[in-house]
Structure to design on (237 residues):
């Protein structure tokens, strides 16, 4: 669990001196103004391998937010969040500008977390086996891909990434399986250059392998990062 920010600690100086609170979230640090969450920072070395800043924007406000700051992109796993990787040119200036907009009164930026609903009848959960979370499916990936009818039937693929894949001509889970993750990324990046990032590749791989997002081995992550660098260089030339 994250304890204290280091390399992105400077961002706290952009927030009101009094009135914000910070807590650990997803291996990073979430920042709240009153009850509204306005920012999450991720530093290198966290388990999710995210590195940079995320800014929450409700779905109905995203088009306006992206028009204001096209440098941001919807996160492939957390579509409510607009992501800015730390390797983005001018990262410090972009973070400053986005937060300045987010901190304005009546800003479209930020999100109020939904309250967790209490179970009306706690006894209904008494006999559920909680030793293994139900989200972690043991279903064989090949069988799962054969049964899947649309891309969002696959683990970790939400409506935002599905729309990007459809734009790239990838219509079905079976088509993506036949292409494999590398050719899928080539097609995706050619249509949407902003997806040229390892996190999109992680999402495609875990979808094809029916794994949780954090289920990739370090050797797989190394392979992905190497391939994505090669792809970036190839598309630049």
């Amino acid at each position: 669990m994250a304890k204290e920010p280091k390399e992105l600690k400077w961002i706290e100086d952009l927030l009101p001196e009094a009135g914000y609170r910070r807590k650990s979230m997803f291996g990073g640090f979430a920042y709240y103004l009153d009850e509204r969450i306005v920012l999450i920072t991720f530093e290198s070395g966290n388990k999710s391998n995210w590195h940079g800043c995320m800014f929450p924007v409700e779905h109905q406000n995203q088009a306006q937010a992206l028009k204001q700051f096209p440098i941001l992109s919807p996160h492939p796993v957390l579509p409510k969040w607009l992501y800015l990787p730390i390797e983005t040119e001018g990262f410090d200036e972009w973070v400053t500008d986005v937060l300045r907009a987010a901190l304005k009164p009546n800003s479209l930026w930020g999100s109020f977390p939904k309250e967790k609903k209490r179970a009306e009848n706690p006894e209904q959960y008494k006999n559920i086996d909680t030793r293994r979370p139900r989200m972690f499916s043991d279903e064989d990936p090949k069988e799962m891909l054969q049964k899947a009818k649309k891309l969002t039937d696959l683990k970790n693929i939400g409506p935002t990434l599905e729309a990007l894949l459809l734009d790239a001509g990838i219509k079905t889970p079976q088509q993506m399986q036949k292409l494999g993750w590398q050719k899928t990324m080539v097609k995706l990046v050619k249509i949407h250059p902003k997806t040229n990032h390892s996190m999109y590749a992680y999402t495609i791989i875990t979808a094809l392998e029916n794994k949780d997002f954090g289920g990739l081995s370090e050797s797989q992550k190394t392979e992905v990062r190497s391939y994505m660098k090669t792809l970036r260089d190839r598309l630049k030339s």
